[in-house]
Design brief:
The chain has 222 residues and is an alpha/beta fold. The protein has two domains: 118 residues, Rossmann fold (3-Layer(aba) Sandwich), CATH 3.40.50.2300; 90 residues, Winged helix-like DNA-binding domain superfamily/Winged helix DNA-binding domain (Arc Repressor Mutant, subunit A). The protein is 41% helix and 22% strand. The protein is built from eight helices and eleven strands. The structure holds calcium ion (CA). The site of calcium ion has 5 residues, from loops.
Length: 222
């Protein structure tokens, strides 16, 4: 999953980038509101973290413009603790959730996970569950038939994306768009390699190859 951080506090943005990358997300960062307005609408982000006080254009203005043009991706706003009016305005403008600064990194992770599950129709589950596999996003491992299966960072990110899109055919280029940030060079073999590793670990039928179309996580594989 690919996340855009829009935050002009460089120290906080650095910290967020490190935390989110460690949690297996592809991360892009912008500090200017005008850049964020455009890039947030054009690039296929799965979620956007949006500060409200930004140079160029305020977070609220950006959010209103996105929503007015049907840009409906999940947006989590970051606000100052005592700015309750801002939080209300943010929610009215179409934010999906908010966090007040300073926040605990784990709370951010859990809110992001919940927002992504909700955005993909997995509403009432505390953990991702698909194709007979449970994903422990905290430990970055899979659980199948009560057995813990260790995953590399790349395998974890790929499996999470496929689990959030269970039953859908996902092209390699879409996987590239969502698993890597804007600066990573494309290598079409790399995804194939990780898919094969996941099959070895979780069973060869878990990911189906649809020739010329992409990959699909089986709905009910054993
Ligand atoms: Ca700010």
């Amino acid at each position: 999953m690919r996340i855009l951080i829009v935050e002009d506090n460089v120290a906080l943005a650095d910290e967020l980038t490190v935390d989110l990358k460690r949690a297996g997300y592809a991360v892009d960062w912008l500090a200017d509101g005008r850049d964020a307005l455009i890039q947030g609408a054009v690039e296929p982000y799965d979620l956007i973290l949006l500060d409200l006080g930004l140079p160029g254009k305020s977070g609220l203005e950006i959010l209103r413009e996105w929503r007015a043009t049907q840009m409906l991706r999940p947006v989590l706003i970051l606000t100052a603790r005592d700015h309750w009016a801002e939080r209300i305005e943010g929610l009215k403008a179409g934010a999906d959730d908010y966090l007040t600064k300073p926040f605990h990194p784990e709370e951010l992770q859990l809110r992001i996970q919940a927002l992504l599950r909700r955005a993909h129709g997995q509403v009432n589950q505390p953990q991702l569950h698909a194709a007979g596999v449970q994903l422990d996003e905290g430990r970055q491992c899979a659980v199948k038939n009560d057995e813990i299966i260790e995953l590399t960072a790349a395998e974890f990110s790929l499996l999470r994306y496929l689990m959030l899109h269970e039953g859908q055919i996902i092209s390699k280029s879409k996987l590239h768009d969502h698993l890597y940030d804007g600066e990573t060079e494309r290598d079409s073999n790399v995804i194939e390699v990780h898919v094969n590793h996941l099959r070895r670990k979780l069973g060869k039928d878990i990911i189906e190859t649809k020739r010329g179309q992409g990959y699909r996580l089986q709905k009910n594989s054993e």
